[in-house]
Amino acid sequence: MHQAIPYRTCIPTGTRDLPHAGGIKESNGVDPANVATMVSENAVVIIGRRGCCMCHVVKRLLQGLGVNPPVYEVDEDHEAVVARQLSTPGTETVQFPAVFLGGKLFGGLERVMATHISGELVPILKDAGALWL
To answer: What's the pLDDT score for residue 14?
Structure first.
């Protein structure tokens, strides 16, 4: 019988005591300054506050469509740094939970739900490379 390979979609929420550039400690296994890199490397990423129930709702909706997105949970003390890192100049700051598709900010829970109800979400996920069927 074959053994299943364990797969985690949620990055661990523990804080490590390893300081790095800027004096900010590593959170969730990812440097808060490198969150933009993580967003650009994945077809779909959910970023939200630690313990946010709306992140869970977005994740479950996307999983129901066949997408298995990673979730980056931001600690309160890193929230402003991560929001600044993900915001583009001249626009509003990113509000959590934020869903990124194809490296670009798609929106929050309301936008994901609205496009799902209108039937536009699956084609958008296909264009972003998150769905193949």
So the answer is: 41
pTM score over 0.70: yes
Residue labelled with tokens 């626009």:
91
SS3 state at 24:
coil
The predicted pLDDT at position 35 comes to 78
Whole-angstrom CA distances from 47 to 118, 128, 130, 132 are: 23, 17, 16, 23
Residues of the chain above pLDDT 90, percent: 26
The Cα 67–Cα 64 span in angstroms is 7
Q: How far apart are CA 25 and CA 43, in angstroms?
A: 26
Instruction: Give the HSE-up count for residue 72: Cα atoms under 13 Å, Cβ half-sphere.
Output: 28
Dihedral of alpha carbons 92, 98, 101, 107, sign? negative
| DSSP per-residue letters across 49-95 | ETT-HHHHHHHHHHHHTT----EEEEPGGGHHHHHHHHPPTTSPPP-
- What are the phi and psi torsion angles at 40 (to 5°)? -75, -20
Count CA within 13 A, CB hemisphere, residue 97.
25
